[in-house]
Amino acid sequence: MDFALTDKQKMIRNITREFSEKYIAPVAEKCDQESYLDPVVMEEMKRMKYFGTCIPKEYGGAGLQDDTISFCIITEEIGRIDASWSITTGVHASVCAYPIYKFGTEDQKERFLRDLATGEKIGAFCLTEANAGSDAGGVQTSAVKDGDEWILNGSKIFATNGGIAKTLLIVATTGMKGRRKELTVFIVDTDTPGYSVGVKEDKLGVRASNTSELVFEDVRLPEENILGGVGTGFRIGMQILDYGRILMAAQCVGLGQAALEASVKYANERVQFGKPIGMFQGVQWKIADMGVAVECARLLTYKAAYLCDQGMDYGVIGSMAKLKASEAAMQATHDAVQIHGAYGLMKAYAVERYFRDAKMAEIYEGTSEIQRMVIAQKLLRGRF
Ligand SMILES: Cc1cc2nc3c(=O)[nH]c(=O)nc-3n(C[C@H](O)[C@H](O)[C@H](O)COP(=O)(O)OP(=O)(O)OC[C@H]3O[C@@H](n4cnc5c(N)ncnc54)[C@H](O)[C@@H]3O)c2cc1C
């Protein structure tokens, strides 16, 4: 068993850390407060191919489609500075671009992947609706066949990148399979008539990222825009989320790491009762617990990524990674605020933002309760 990163992975970590500190850090607080993605950072991100991480070079991507550990390292390093950016690039690449590469026809890859790989077009994955949160079976957005085309009607909510995306993966019902809804994934170009963006959400955390409602009114789609075949939507949708969870776990590792680093710095600097507060056992134990939680989360996340790259089943480990990492980030950011005292509640200190961002990760890409349900179901079937 080798826990060492390759030279290439170490280089990717160094480059992304340097990039994030240089470009993202200076504007992170402003973008959080004013709820927008900085356009200069966006252009630099495109230049660095952070939108095409897991797309093969032949489609203009960075060629890390078989190196999910590197994709995790990139997401972790961006998340260490600003979770809004890691969710933006992570969602774009992991649950929109990668599924087109994985399940798409050659024609779909040619038509959609190149612009996604360069970031020329931003991608989104849209499953959630007003009546379909944890339960994908509640999807009501429907697609009805009309000659060679499908007509899409309905609305999606809470779509990351929704308001800025040009390429969407939409999960819609296309009929019934016995007593269950038949689901199908459609690739939607947002230039298609009948498409519009609804409410942009004003959120607690990851505030700079775009979370929006999307509306579809008689949107006509060619048969060639179906991803993976009619009726495969539930299976594909779950596989898309399995992969996405590894990256959301990586983002939380970065967030937890940021909270730990900020706490160590503050605990060494802040003096009370004549010594740095890091000398007090009550503070030391918090730092120790943060370090353990973040490292456990990192190990599970890299293991899920490793299994994925080996072509092995990573579903349950991916869920464990997402659960552990989001809860580790929550614990670490909670303790980070505590260690900072009143200063930790002020906008002037980044731990205030980390704390709000971490809460979000316990909800999106499957809540902690749903992760526990998925993990328990697999374990109870004897799949260890
Ligand atoms: C910032 C952000 C970004 C998002 N991005 C996207 C995106 O890009 N695409 C997308 O499709 N969606 C996205 N979502 C939606 C997100 O995935 C859902 O919010 C999430 O799956 C939960 O659905 P819900 O909010 O409707 O909660 P509900 O499903 O209504 O759950 C409410 C509560 O009940 C619990 N619960 C539900 N069912 C069970 C059960 N069987 N057992 C135990 N407890 C249960 C839940 O854990 C939760 O605590 C995003 C959400 C946020 C906040």
Enumerate the strands of the largest sheet in spatial order, edge to edge or round the barrel: 1-4-5-8
Q: Uncertain segments of ≥5 residues (pLDDT<50)?
A: none
Helix-strand topology string: HHHHHEEEEEEEEHEEHHHH
How would the global form be characterised? globular
CATH structural architecture of the largest domain:
Up-down Bundle
Strand content: 15-25%
The N- to C-terminal Cα distance equals 19 Å
* Domain tally: 3
Q: Treating each run of at least 4 consecutive H or I residues as one helix, how many helices?
A: 10
**The CATH superfamily title of the largest domain:** Butyryl-CoA Dehydrogenase, subunit A, domain 3
Tell me what the structure shows.
This protein is an alpha+beta fold. The chain has 3 domains: 115 residues, Orthogonal Bundle (Butyryl-Coa Dehydrogenase, subunit A, domain 1), CATH 1.10.540; 107 residues, Beta Barrel (Butyryl-CoA Dehydrogenase, subunit A, domain 2); 146 residues, Butyryl-CoA Dehydrogenase, subunit A, domain 3 (Up-down Bundle), CATH 1.20.140.10. It is 52% helix and 17% strand. It contains 10 helices and 10 strands. It has a 4-stranded mixed sheet. Strands 2-3-7-6 form a 4-stranded antiparallel sheet, with helices on one face. Strands 9-10 form a two-stranded antiparallel ribbon. It is globular. The two termini are 19 Å apart. The model has no long low-confidence stretch (mean pLDDT 97). The structure holds flavin-adenine dinucleotide. The site of flavin-adenine dinucleotide has 23 residues, from strand 1, strand 3 and helix 10.
